[in-house]
Amino acid sequence: MARLARWGSALPLFWFLGIITLYLRARAHLGHWPHPSIDDPKLLPFEVHHFVLAFAFYPLIATLVALPMLWFFQKRYLRMPIRKNVAGYLTGWALIAATFLIPGVRLVEWFLD
Fold it and tell me: Most buried one in 18, 22, 30, 89, CB count within 10 A?
């Protein structure tokens, strides 16, 4: 169970890094920065990269509900420390949220469009 919590905690950060690499690959391929609704990521020649990120999106959303419940169980019943897991999880989600809040940085919005 601790291993599942550790991998789930790292998923937002890994997903964010995958989005950045897809964005940089699109930039190199197109010659300009892609924008939402322009240069659809599904139409670029990176099908496997896009498929992996699209497939990982559903477990990423599931971590919003499942991990807090798992951490509660670990902390309350198993008396296991969860500080490192929570820090990595919140860092990943903060980076994903920052792409929506910082003007001009719309890479997650471009992928989800």
Answer: 89
